[in-house]
Design goal:
Blueprint lengths: L1 E4 L3 H6 L1 H13 L3 E3 L9 H5 L3 H15 L4 E4 L2 H14 L6 H5 E3 H9 L11 E5 L2 H5 L16 H6 L6 E3 L13 H5 L1 H17 L4 E4 L2 H14 L4 E4 H6 L3
Parallel strand pairs: 1-2, 1-3, 3-4, 5-6, 5-7, 7-8
């Protein structure tokens, strides 16, 4: 089994430590992982903004770069869900290999690797950030609006970490307000949603907000920095890999 590590462009540019943590986590779990150097944006920003011709070009390139790997794994629920849910429509005359083989990293570790222990410790209290794409498109946790038993893959994985305390905020899977283009076009609403979300995390008494989407964490971290709040953000791969 060979895994290709997909690092979204904004993670590569703004959160390179998350890319390294993702690589180290997979290596520590014994995965044969490679990083295809020709990779670039998956096309999500263009697709979300309505420029589907540009998104289709990037989708074709993505297909070429990641063809032939058993799995394509990335630390971003939104980018992974874009590949999985939209490439078939963007490339109607193309057999989309990556669409059938792409996984968000927590989804991959939880569902495919299925570790029973991790040799890491994180003696801190963390509040889970459940992103919209992760919850409602990838099933990383069960949506609160559905009458189903609660499950959370991020919480399951953090449960393998020694000394950690995991809590969740009130309205645990309500949107933080980022939403890509929404944050640009409706910045006032986006900002208020973000402040509300951060304050619910703060109310838990947690030291860290931990999630699987850097975009959500980036949005909330901007609010934390501006308002000088006593809480930090971390991508879950940093904790699971011990690269904090």
């Amino acid at each position: 089994m060979q895994v290709a590590l997909f690092i979204p462009c904004y993670v590569n540019a703004v959160f390179p430590e998350v890319g390294m943590a993702s690589l180290h986590l997979l290596q520590q779990l014994g995965v044969d992982v490679v990083y295809p150097e020709r990779q670039t944006c998956c096309g999500q920003p263009m697709g979300n903004a309505g420029f589907e011709d540009e998104a289709a070009g990037l989708a074709r390139h993505f297909e070429e770069v990641f063809a032939g790997y058993d799995y394509v794994v990335g630390p971003s629920a939104s980018c992974v869900s874009f590949v999985r849910d939209h490439y078939g429509r963007l490339l109607p005359d193309h057999q989309c290999h990556s669409q059938q083989h792409v996984y968000e990293i927590c989804e991959f570790v939880h569902d495919v690797i299925r570790p029973t222990s991790l040799n890491v410790s994180f003696p801190h209290k963390v509040s889970l950030q459940n992103s919209c794409h992760g919850v409602r498109l990838l099933g990383l946790s069960s949506p609160s609006e559905r009458n189903v038993p609660y499950a959370n893959k991020l919480r399951d994985l953090l449960g393998l970490v020694r000394d950690i305390e995991v809590v969740e905020p009130e309205r645990r899977d309500e949107c933080c307000g980022f939403g890509g283009m929404f944050a640009v076009e409706e910045h006032a609403v986006s900002g208020q949603m973000g402040r509300d979300k951060v304050m619910r995390h703060v109310a838990t008494g947690a030291e860290y907000i931990v999630g699987a989407d850097c975009s959500c964490l980036m949005h909330q971290n901007g609010i934390i920095a501006r308002e000088r709040l006593n809480i930090k953000t971390l991508h879950i791969a940093q904790i699971l890999s011990g690269n904090v």
